[in-house]
Design brief:
33% of the residues lie in helices and 22% in strands. The chain is of the alpha+beta class and 588 residues long.
Length: 588
């Protein structure tokens, strides 16, 4: 009889609440939980009920997200409450608390983590984690996958390799398989510094409080519409076995613990990187995960560069007309650079600002970083020609140049010498971030040594105006019949191997010195900002901005004569702790 009575009660409850909405059911259960009870322990049946409701409900409103956060807090013994404005949900524990900033539609705008008594800090990892669909167990698994990814990236970063620069940090940034890696901490994701230009190094040297400069990538995780297999354990066997490129041989995901999840790993680029369409396609080829078209706003490449550099003069769109820039150089020298609109309007030369790159395996990261560095090298050269200064009546330029795209990784600079009746062309090819070559096409300049000279200048300064200044002076001396400095056709190991855009030298005692490398391209070695940058290049009525000054490198005559060994400390092992395992780095 009791069983029949119970069935009747359940049937009556089903009938009573059949027409109720999920939100009303949530409110009822939460009211029951708020009622006073004899003990302080949460009612387990009600917790299980809320969990079932939570799994059945899609988060599409503010109240639904608040309910999800309350369930997560109760399951882990944390407290929770809403702010008076109902825009922030606080999850509290004994040692720390979380601030979850909510949008009206239920999306999470930001997540801040703080210990009690300290200021909260935004957490990119927790923000992405809360936006991943699925129950809490799924989120925990995704977070676990991210932890194992970070450990594997650290292992790759510590693998033996050749030391190409005496400055270890610059060497790690430009040549490291994982760049200059900073491990994540509470609320802060793992950070990778993967590219730095000579002008960035100058800024860092002249302003010690400026902090890290160059291109950064945050290693995070984010939601996806489809599922991807992510690692739940390390995929690098111990001890690691290296392939011909010095990368570890990874264990297949089918042989290690892994799971299908509605998420994938992400590289968050800071700042966003202007990338040509061909490079964006290569990203997807590496990861086999396409970047959503909705996240890409295609535009002519110069427009992207001008927007990122803040040099668009207030124009929000590229009008297809020729873009004309004046570049000041030391000694009141002025160059004129024109980017023809028609040439840069071709579909193959369109690009997009890429801020997030999805991937699913640690093996993708070295290849992605190499591609990003390649794009950064192209961007650095093009950015050296772009300033906020525009032609106006008054200054007469010392050199007029036209910059034309030849392909996705090469460009030409057409210029006219004042003492010549013909045009000359400098073809710049960027095979990758370390392999830059120049070919000069000028009357009477068919010389391999001249090409080698200009190539070395470009690699060391990564600036087209500085290179053109050095080239113009050398050609002018040749025309005037002056004796030229030796331009040897024999290239040393330093010229063949990838060289730093800003080479460093080592003293006899092993200490680092920037003097030799800096002076070789005429850059002052003092710490004074005034000595590093030229502020009077345009005369007293014009002040160069910081962005423009970064390219006003003083070059009287660039010294690129090869030396016997410009990197005398390059025989030192990068990671000596690998030596006892017979994992010796390559010696140069």
């Amino acid at each position: 009889m009791a069983v029949v009575g119970s069935k009747s009660i359940i049937s009556d409850l089903h009938s009573k609440y059949a027409e109720k909405t999920w939100n009303e059911t949530f409110k009822l259960v939460r009211r029951c939980m708020d009622k006073s009870r004899g003990d302080t322990k949460p009612c387990e049946p009600l917790i299980r009920c809320l969990k079932i409701l939570h799994e059945a409900l899609n988060v599409s409103s503010l109240s639904a997200m608040v309910s999800r956060l309350e369930i997560m807090a109760k399951q882990r013994g944390m407290g929770s409450h809403l702010s008076p404005t109902e825009t922030t949900c606080y999850l509290t524990a004994d040692m720390f608390y979380l601030e979850v900033l909510l949008l009206p539609g239920g999306e999470v705008e930001d997540v801040k983590l703080a210990q009690h008594g300290e200021a909260p800090v935004s957490s990119e990892s927790l923000l992405q984690l809360l936006n991943i669909p699925g129950e809490n167990e799924t989120k925990i698994k995704v977070y676990t996958a991210l932890q194992f990814l970070g450990k594997d990236l650290q292992k790759i970063s510590h693998l033996p390799r050749a030391l190409r620069e005496c400055n270890l940090q610059v060497d790690m940034i430009l040549n490291g398989r994982i760049g200059y890696l900073t491990a994540g901490s509470e609320g802060i994701p793992m950070t990778i510094q993967y590219y730095i230009s000579p002008s960035d190094i100058l800024l860092e040297m002249s302003d010690s409080e400026r902090g890290s400069v160059g291109q950064l990538a945050l290693v995070t995780v984010g939601p996806t519409d489809s599922t991807h297999k992510l690692q739940m354990a390390s995929v690098i066997p111990q001890p690691p076995q290296l392939d011909a490129q010095g990368l570890p041989l990874f264990s297949p995901l089918c042989e290690v613990l892994s799971e299908m999840m509605p998420a994938c790993f992400q590289l968050k680029l800071q700042p966003p990187l202007p990338m040509l369409s061909s490079f964006v396609e290569k990203l997807s080829q590496i990861t086999d995960v396409a970047i959503a078209d909705a996240d890409l706003q295609w535009a002519p490449f110069p427009q992207l560069m001008m927007t990122l550099l803040g040099e668009n003069g207030g124009n929000k769109t590229w009008d297809g007309q020729d873009a004309h820039f004046l570049v000041p150089l030391p000694g009141k020298e002025i160059h004129s650079y024109v980017l023809p609109g028609a040439a840069w309007e071709e579909a193959a030369l369109r690009g997009a600002l890429v801020s997030t790159i999805p991937f699913t395996h640690p093996a993708h990261v070295p290849a992605l970083l190499e591609l990003l560095r390649h794009q950064c090298a192209i961007n650095t050269l093009l950015a050296s020609c772009i300033t906020s200064l525009r032609p106006s009546p008054g200054p007469v330029c010392d050199l007029y140049c036209e910059v034309l795209p030849e392909s996705g990784s090469s460009l030409s600079v057409t210029f006219h010498l004042s003492d010549s009746d013909s045009l000359s062309v400098l073809l710049v090819n960027v095979a990758d971030s370390r392999k830059l070559t120049c070919s000069l096409f000028a009357v009477g300049s068919e010389s391999e040594s001249m090409d080698e000279y200009v190539s070395r200048v470009l690699k060391r300064c990564m600036s087209i105006p500085v290179t053109m200044r050095a080239l113009n002076r050398r050609l002018s001396k040749r025309t005037c019949g002056e004796a030229l400095p030796a331009c040897s056709a024999t290239i040393s190991t330093a010229d063949v191997s990838p060289a730093s855009p800003l080479p460093m030298s080592c003293e006899a005692d092993g200490s680092l010195s920037s003097g030799s490398g800096l002076e070789s391209i005429g850059i002052p070695t003092t710490s004074s900002t005034a000595a590093v940058f030229s502020q009077d290049a345009m005369g007293p009525d014009t002040t160069a901005t910081a962005a423009e000054s970064a390219f006003c490198l003083s070059v009287a005559e660039v010294n690129t004569n090869p030396t016997a060994n410009p990197y005398p400390c390059a025989s030192v092992c990068v990671y000596s702790h690998w030596m006892h395992n017979n994992h010796l780095p390559e010696l140069i």
